[in-house]
Amino acid sequence: MSSPSGTPPVSLAPHFTYEAGRLRVEGVALDELARTHGTPLFVYSQAAMLDALAAYQRGLAGRSHQICYAMKANSTLAILQTLARAGCGFDIVSGGELERALAAGADPTTIIFSGVGKTRAEMRRALDVGIGCFNVESRAELDVLDEVARGVGLRAPVSIRVNPNVDAKTHPYISTGLKGNKFGIAHEEVVATYRHAAACAGLRVVGIDCHIGSQITQADPYLDAMDRVLDLVQAIEAAGVPIQHIDFGGGLGIDYNGDTPPAADALWKRLLDKIDARGYGDRKIYLEPGRSLVGNAGVCITEVLYLKPGEQKNFLIVDAAMNDLPRPAMYQAFHQIVPLTPRPDTPTTWDVVGPVCESGDWLGRDRDLAVQAGDLLAVLSAGAYCMSMASNYNTRGRAAEVLVSGTTATPIRARESAMDQLRLENLLPPA
Ligand code: LLP
Question: In sequence order, what are the beta bridge partners of 209?
């Protein structure tokens, strides 16, 4: 926790600090990066990602396990490489993510394929490269996978995603473990589905899978879901189908605004105690964390373009927008916004908005900031579900990205130009 003088206290994530009036990530001043690379600019701390991963690794030490980073959170190649080199496999949800993971040097056997709508082509490619497991979400998908695998003379390793019907107590759009969600197979149908899978010549049942939601900040939904999953393991094995691994998904939240999620190592100690107490301590554990590995490792730097004070609202117009940082517009999500070099002046209350032509294009509402045009701001906790959800709306090029390690800053993605965006399109023939 550290605060710039003259601004309300802000809690900064590990590896981000104010020193001599400048916000730094590890050993690099963020304003310097903005000057070199322009804005909007995503900057990540490699140490923050590795520390977050280490908490999971500590929690699971001594157990047979595989941490599969849910790369939908941030799929930039250098980030995947960072995590792969530290021992991560990947949780993928598309053929595109599979190619990214392979390009980043992932061992295919450590890749698991989640998602409700895998196509035959995606299944074939994943079988071809030898991925570790398909997390299957419906009976119909199971049958198609069986057919595709038989067609290429292979047996697809499968886990069935079960829906434990627990409330993750998070935003409805990112809650996935309740009965009304499109995800997983309902509790009552699980045993019959496993029996069916075990009888398919193109399938090899290896595990069970669940994922109850995202940005979960309490331990209880996890503990409840684990109990229900273990009940199912018991029932499935009683029906004669052995379960080698338990994939418990992702979902652990991060601190955006005073949130207090359990630490990954403490949470896993409790979950493993439960697994042991119920006699399943010998099973391999798979996890699919996304946000908790990268969310607080990244910030988005943006420049203040214009101050637009008004009768009802004061608007601070910045050069980052909902196409760069869609979470506020999509989920009314809160991200802290802080100056890179705080001014000692009295703050004014602003709505921080982008240049996109929609009222929904806001990054933060009612923020107290002392700023002038040309100042640089950091939108915090922007490592997860920002760049990976960025779009070209308003034909805005996606931002550049830099990865910092100690005093070294490596550009890992160039700013997208207008020409990059036009490249795939064709003009009509001359009239
Ligand atoms: N496994 C599965 C099957 C998932 O669907 C997800 C996330 C994860 C793992 C990783 O969850 P995490 O550890 O990151 O919570 N765009 C939203 C979040 C969507 C999450 C989708 N599934 C947001 O910005 O909050």
Answer: 161, 247
User: Measuring from each residue's beta carbon to the nearest atom of ligand 1, which residues come in under 6 Å?
Assistant: 70, 73, 91, 114, 174, 211, 214-215, 249-252, 288-292, 327, 331, 385
Q: What is the DSSP letter of 182?
A: S
Kindly give the distance from the C-alpha atom of residue 428 to the centroid of ligand 1, in angstroms, as a whole number: 40
180-206 confidence digits (pLDDT tens) = 677 889 989 999 999 999 999 999 999
CATH superfamily of 16-46+295-422: Lyase, Ornithine Decarboxylase; Chain A, domain 1 (2.40.37.10)
Tokens of 82: 């960072």
Segment 169-179 shows an average pLDDT of 63
Name the superfamily (CATH) of residues 114-289: Alanine racemase (3.20.20.10)
Whether the full predicted model's pTM is greater than 0.85, yes or no, is yes
50 in Cβ contact with 405 (< 8 Å): no
Q: Strands 362-369 and 65-70: what pairing? A: unpaired
Q: Are 97 and 75 in contact (CB under 8 A)?
A: yes
Ligand 1, closest atom to CA 288?
Answer: 9
Asked if 210 is an active-site residue, the reply is: no
Question: What pLDDT was estimated at residue 7?
Answer: 46
Q: How far is the CA of 222 from the centre of ligand 1 (A)?
A: 15
Tens-place pLDDT, residues 333-363: 999 999 999 999 999 999 999 999 999 999 9
- Closest-CA residue, ligand 1 atom 23, reads 385
